[in-house]
Design a protein that fits this description.
By secondary structure, the protein is of the alpha+beta class. The two termini are 15 Å apart. Its cofactor is Mg(2+).
Length: 946
Amino acid sequence: MDHHSTIKAMLTPIPLPRAPEAAATLLSDTLAGLAEGGPVPREAAVGAFRRHLARIQSYVQHAFEHEQITGLQAARLLAALVDGVIGALFEHTTTNSDLEPVENLSIAATGGYGRGVLAPFSDIDLLFLTAEDPTPETLRVVEYMLYFLWDLGLKVGHATRSISDCLTEGAKDTTIRTALLDARFLAGNEVLFGDFHRRFRAACKEAGAAEYIAAKQAERSVRHRRYGDSPFVVEPNVKEGRGGLRDLQTLYWIARYVFDTQTMGELADLGGILTQQEARHGRRAWEFLWTVRFHLHYVAGRAEERLTFDLQPVIGARMGYTRHGRQDGVERFMRHYFLTAREIARLTRILEPAILRSALGPPAIEAETDAALLSAGFVLAEGKLLPISGRDFDAEPIQMLRILQIARDRGLELHPLAIRSFIQNERRAVALRGDPKAAAIFMDLLCGKEPDRHRPGSPHPDGARWLGILNETGFFGRYLPDWARIVGQMQFDTYHIFTVDEHTIEAVRVLNKLERGELAEIAPIASELIDHVQSRRALYLAMLLHDIAKGRGGDHSEIGAEVALEVGPALGLTDEETETVSWLVLHHLLLSGTAFKRDIDDPKTILDLADTIQSPERLRLLLILTVADMRAVSSKVWNGWKATLLRELYSRVAEVLAGGLATAERDVRVARAKQAVASLLSDWTDQEIESYTSLGYAGYWLSFDPETHARHARLIRDSEHRQSPLTVDTQPLPARAVTEVTVYCADHAGLFSQISGAIAVAGASIVDARIHTMNNGMALDTFWIQDTSGGTFDSPHRLARLSVLIEQALSGRLKLATEIGRVSKVLLGRRMQAIHVPPRVVIDNHASNTHTVLEVNGRDRPGLLHDVTAAISEQGLQIASAHVTTYGVRAVDVFYVKDIFGLKIENERKLGQIKEALLQALASAEDPASPVVLPAVRTLRKAATG
């Protein structure tokens, strides 16, 4: 058979069950054709094997990508085809080389390959098994085969052990024992492998299952902590993450250790442990994850196991997920993934305790179970709560809530069999809708007991713990239908690290921590205020419902507020509490949106906010809700700078609501600011103080505290004394997680753009800025910057370089566009480019009485502020203040501007020109993701076609 005929035969569709045998025959025929009556030269043999390997990999990929087979079928087919390669190599090694045949050698597959499944770029794990210590001849055969496989470009994990070594090492190391558990005969002495298998199984039985199961559970816990304890992390690891393939494999290992099952499919046949529906869900999850994994490997061209943002839309599209209604295809795909991961977590909760019971016997019911517990319908088994026979969850659905309440009140854990019963009876939660008793218990679980921090032993609220159980078992989605709509729902951005349901539970967990005083240093105001709120139940329910309407289209705050009006009464809240919940859901983004996007030194900002909030109690609730919501998004989202802005905003609104000094009385506040700084400049003459206090306009005096004013005064006096054209002062503020950069120089058009460009080149990001032109024609611009990780930009050499870069930018010696381009190439990766951020410009002439407010939304990147502010300057506008916020890869920059005459911009034509200029500046930020390259796939196809 010539070369092209071989390829054609390999690529011609053949019945899948016969494909491995057909492939092995093709390889044997090719090697026989090369022999010509003598040994096949090694180089020729390597070439033949390499071509054959490329053909079988291309064959599997073609069948998979043309939807002739699923991912699991492809994994099994690829493993079977590689079996033929290993078998042919062993035959070639022992018959067509200079090595002598060996009788006491058996080659076995281990790891995933041992289970009969193989991903495109996975390692091939082999065990070279001998009866006794390997002879020199045996070691030469093993060495020849390994070098041959490496020359083929394969990643091979290997071990050479005698049967005794296997038993000894397996007894000492659980990882080795698991690898041996997966061992599957490939080639060589089959009787020897059979002897090993019998002795190994006997050793496992003698050791007992308890120690092995405990070790695998501990190993799983460590893995979950490393890859995310939640199945709902938005960039999940398909193999190692919670609810991934490894969790299913752990179930398989435990079942195989106890029952000697041979395939994953046999998990459905373990003596009726699983219902037919549960077994079907397990098989479906196994198939789905293997299909995702195959797509991952082929798209990435390597053994990639993480579903990153750049890969999610590609794989979703390959699997046929398209836009449906309001959901993008990638969001539909990821929701399916998360629901599958949850199904695996649930399957673990069901199957694992049942296997334990089979291996270790039924749980011992403890005789000391007290009468009150028995009367409530529960017993203690192994120190954990379990419903008694006759009062199980199917017969009394409300017991699912009561068992959690008792577990909380008595400090007990739920027995695994109770969790299993929870999952199997989740549908019975529907019967509890509208039941006042069930509603009262649910609200009690959500809110917990109000703690007394000053009384030792006071109960600690831990509603998030019980919500997590209710959510994972499926009860919550059945009990509250609106909740079911957000389970597993992701937002395709880099800001949120959890799905909507998991984020909400995390937000309740933050509330719990605030009440326990655990965040007093991180969020002192919220920690103090939470002890004084009167509407505690409303606060917790608002936290639970604040994102309940995400994914429905429209404003999720408005829709969520309507949902709250229905849910509140159903859960037993009063009309007043329900109205408060609805208001909080409607306005849950109000404080953060104002603090990070508006000038809180503008009196109208504070007066408008106070007019909306109206009540000190609502202000307290809103601040606590805002802090918990932000902390729950990600620990990186919350920092000292944002805490400072929220604290200042809260204090100013609280002052107005308390009937204190009105924000409109600017002259009084300015006079007080000047008096405060004068008291700090005690070593100055009256003339020097008068000279400084006459420089700034009202906006300047209302923008800083007295200590900062005093620092500015000294900076200005020193600059004038030295007749310096430029002064740059840097002040790290670790408590706020920012560095304050003050620039004092002659004012000119484009100054803000040049300074922000220099800051970008220095590798810092601007989080806020204040621009003040003094009445002497000098500019006093203040920037608050952070490093790329969101911390204080405080390294001495970097601060020194920053000062030099600012001087070079202002003198024109720094080519900003070129330098920013270099920084962008380093910082912008394909993973971030996958997130589409549509550019948007909003112009608001109502937010301020004195300025036009420009809100610019676009993809964040180095130099974005430079480009945007350059466009603003080119339009002849003066920037009074800038407020910079990032949400993952999305930047929201807000500028307070006036025209050259110091007035708001009212002309519609001019406003249109401004908007168009800003959109053009944003357009350069939309650097489209480069096409995904499949180098490995191209190589395989090239080899397959000669």
